[in-house]
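Lab meeting tomorrow. Please check the following:
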Amino acid sequence: MKPTSTVSSTSTDDDVPKNYVQHILRTQKQLPPVTWHNWWKELQWINVLVLTITPCLAIYGAYTTKLTRETAILSIVYYFITGLGITAGYHRLWSHRSYNASKPLEYFLALAGAGAVQGAIKWWCRGHRAHHRYTDTELDPYSAQRGFLWSHLGWMVVKPRRKIGAADVSDLSKSAVVQWQYKYYLWLMLGMGYTFPAVVAGLCWGDWRGGFFYAGALRLTFVQHSTFCVNSLAHWLGESPFDDKHTPKDHVLTALVTVGEGYHNFHHQFPMDYRNAIKWYQYDPTKWFIAACKIIGLASHLKTFPDNEVKKGQLTMQLKRLREVQDQIHWASDIKELPVITWDTFQEQSAHRPLVLIAGIIHDISPFLDNHPGGRHLLVRFLGKDATAAFFGGVYDHSNAAHNLLSMYRVAILEHGYQQGVEEKVVPPAQRLRILRYNEMGYGSSSDETLVGDEEVKLL
């Protein structure tokens, strides 16, 4: 998230064609590639200076200034305050409008966000809304498809090769707090980023240098890269429990380093939800802060996505993973693919190979004949005969594993051999619940394309 205050012009949705991404990619000219001959012209030097001078000051201060306990505590507390300015303010309040904030809370978050030195609210939100709208495309300002380093720092250091996608921020133009912060952003950035922590440490316990270097520069370095990890680490490390169409992922480590923004797969699926973590035990201090503000009357109208819809996303991914496991398993032949033979043929073949008839299906049990737990003789007595009653409890009520294994020995179907009352037993237990794609359910398109996507699955 770029630490400058420049705000580009924006377009409303009325100006955006329906095939906007393809239109832009076809008509908008890209900047030339960065080479050894032009790289110095292609850098965003203000960003480069901010991103290099701040950590250099922090390193210098760490070598020349003693860290006191009071200053260390201030640095940690101010890290979380300015981090919340981004996560609870810039991100969840102004970018996604996931809750309503009172004016005192808005001013507090605007000041705290300025202390994180990541640009004015309107500029930051314009880029973030584009990121959500064009995730992983060339119009995404910090697309993870361009690599970890690009999404973490590269997009701020190098001039973008093309203009990022359109995003409407007209609502922010009407906000008095947003406009006030933008008008005075330079002074607020310097004051909240460096001066305020130095003054607090200086006036309270006489540590002016420590306040500037530790609570100022070092804290700022950490809070900036904490936010940058939402663009990089949160699209690289973790799992996709709600949707794997795009790169955002959930991981507790990312949550720990981003003040709770690490459950990014959930966030990209349900961006208007004020939560990132939906489980009570998951680390999301931003969620807890917003909830606390509601309790004391500073926040209201906290938005949550319907739990029923959240569960649909989780179930879809669970079914998809089960389908992947299912596709790796070797299943019994479909009975529709088996040849149909007469009783006489069954008898004739049984004279040469160990065949038994169970539930109208003929099985060649030669691979299991000598491995039967009850002994070979129990199977031999049924060769060339109907063993349906014996198999389904007459001799032994066989386990699911036995039913599944038996289905792998199918070789044919006996003509007119089905017995009333055992039709459902023809399906082995392992196949009574199957994951089917939409186009495999017997209706809809017969092609690989479906109404809801190729990977949509259902449990039958």
The longest strand covers residues 410-414. The beta strands are 100-101, 299-300, 340-341, 355-358, 361-364, 410-414, 435-437, 457-459. DSSP finds 18 helices and eight strands in the chain. Residues 69-95 form the longest helix (27 residues).
